[in-house]
Each structure stands twice: as C-alpha cells, then as structure tokens.
Design goal:
By secondary structure, the chain is α/β, with parallel strands linked by helices. It has one domain: Metal-dependent hydrolases (TIM Barrel). It has nine helices and seven strands; from the N terminus they run βαβαβαβαβαβαβααα. The chain has a seven-stranded parallel beta sheet with strand order 1-2-3-4-5-6-7, with helices on both faces. The longest helix has 18 residues.
Length: 259
C-alpha cells in the first residue's frame, strides 16, 4: 500500500469531536501514516498538542492564523516561542495573509506574519502559509526574511507566483480543490508544475474534494485526492505517493515513519 503524508489537517477541529478516533484510524488504514496538524491561535495549542500526543502519526505545527487576528495579542508571540521550546513542531503554521475575507485589518495581519517568519528563522523551521489572494504580499516578505522553505497551502495563484515560491524553497499544496472538474487553473498547475514541488493535503475538515461536495473533508480522503493528481498527470498512484511523500519528508526533516 502506498504511504501518504497529509501536510495540512486540522484533526483537532470541533467537527471531529464525535468520531476523531475513527477518522484517524480510517486514514491510517488508507495509508495516510502522517498528518501534520497546524494550530491557528494560542487558544488551540492545547488541542493540537492533545491530538499529537494521542495519535502517533499526528505531528504538530504551531502558529497564529491571519483569520484569527481578532484574538491574537502581541504577547502571544512569546507564548508561541514557549510552545516551540516545549514541543518542537515540524513547522510554524498556520501563518500568512488573507486578502479575501473582508474586515481583517491588513496591518495587523502583516505584523503577526512578519514576526512569525522571524520566529521560523530563529528556530530553523519551515512555514505553512495561508495565502488566499495574497501571494505577492507573502513573497515580498519571504524575500526579505529568509526561512527554511515551507508550503504555500491551498495555493491558487499564477504559474509565475508558483515559480517564485519554488525558488524560495517552497512546496505547493492544493487541498482537494483541484479535484473539481471546473477548477481549471488548479488543474493546470497540478499537471504542469514539477512533481518535486507538490505536496498532498486535505485541510480537513475544509476544502472538500468533488466527491464529498459540501460535506466534511477528512484525512482518509487523501489517497483519492492523490489518485486524481495521478490521473491528471498520467502517472500511477505509487509514483505520486512516493514523490509527494519524499517532498514532505525532505521539507519537514522526517527520516522515519512515526507509526
């Protein structure tokens, strides 16, 4: 069975409270042996920590998400450093910028993004980037504050922007969005980008693939997402699994399976 890494999965989310054990087991049975679970605020560090402690295949990332700037405080950056010292993550995330959602103060988003890039640089960790409608702005700061690469999560930019992320040592994830037949831009990217620049992710419980529709996404859907990528590129599923797993292992510095 192919081995998969879900590089972005919010298994700590309340949507999984009723069946988290079952969904984790389903994912592992499908070959999803590693799930990276990013935090979104200081308030859910404990939930991510609990999930990562309970499930051997879940690895934490610590960060302050741009959509939660209403709850972030400058002192939470010190708390983030404390959390990193307590349990070293595989990445800093989920961080970034969001220019799609109205009412999110850009200056505040930018402050937390910049400060967290500095933290990632200080600890030599990659970053998981929320990049909705903000690729150029994200890239501007990445060129100035050098970090050890990362993932442009749920990427939906131009080929030129993708190339700029790749030049800076980043991989690209699309969630399940490219499985929708009308996702023409994403499908072109999925086909044309170098395979060594792509990682797999579900963003569970969000970004459901086409076969789920508006339902809850889950990490166990990752192999079918990978199958769609394989079909679009004219490859077999084993090739896609090996390549994307190798990409993720290299990025996160993972040598051996935690399960």
């Amino acid at each position: 069975m192919p081995f998969f890494i879900d590089t972005h999965c919010h298994l700590d989310a309340a949507e999984f409270d009723a069946d988290r054990d079952a969904e984790y087991a389903r994912a592992v049975a499908a070959g999803v042996g590693i799930q990276v679970v990013p935090a979104v605020s200081r308030d859910n560090f404990a939930a991510v920590d609990a999930v990562s402690a309970r499930y051997p295949g879940c690895l934490p990332a610590w960060g302050l998400h741009p959509m939660y700037i209403g709850v972030h405080r400058p002192e939470h950056l010190a708390d983030l450093r404390t959390q990193i010292e307590a349990r070293r993550p595989v990445a800093i995330g989920e961080i970034g910028l969001d220019l799609f959602v109205r009412g999110l103060d850009y200056a505040t988003q930018e402050f937390f993004y910049i400060e967290q890039l500095k933290i990632a640089r200080d600890y030599d960790l990659p970053v998981l980037l929320h990049c909705r409608k903000a690729n150029d702005e994200l890239l501007k700061h990445l060129r100035r504050i050098k970090v050890r690469g990362g993932i442009a999560h749920a990427f939906n930019g131009s080929p030129q922007q993708a190339d700029e992320f790749i030049k800076l040592g980043f991989k690209l994830g699309f969630g399940g969005a490219f499985t929708w037949p009308r996702a023409n831009n994403l499908r072109r990217l999925a086909v044309n980008l170098p395979l060594d620049a792509i990682v797999l992710e579900t963003d569970s419980p969000d970004i459901p693939p086409a076969w789920i529709g508006r339902g809850r996404n889950a990490p166990g859907e990752l192999p079918r997402i990978a199958q769609t990528l394989a079909e679009l590129r004219g490859l077999d599923i084993e090739t896609v699994a090996r390549a994307t797993t190798r990409n993720a292992r290299t990025l996160f510095g993972l040598e051996e399976d935690p399960v």
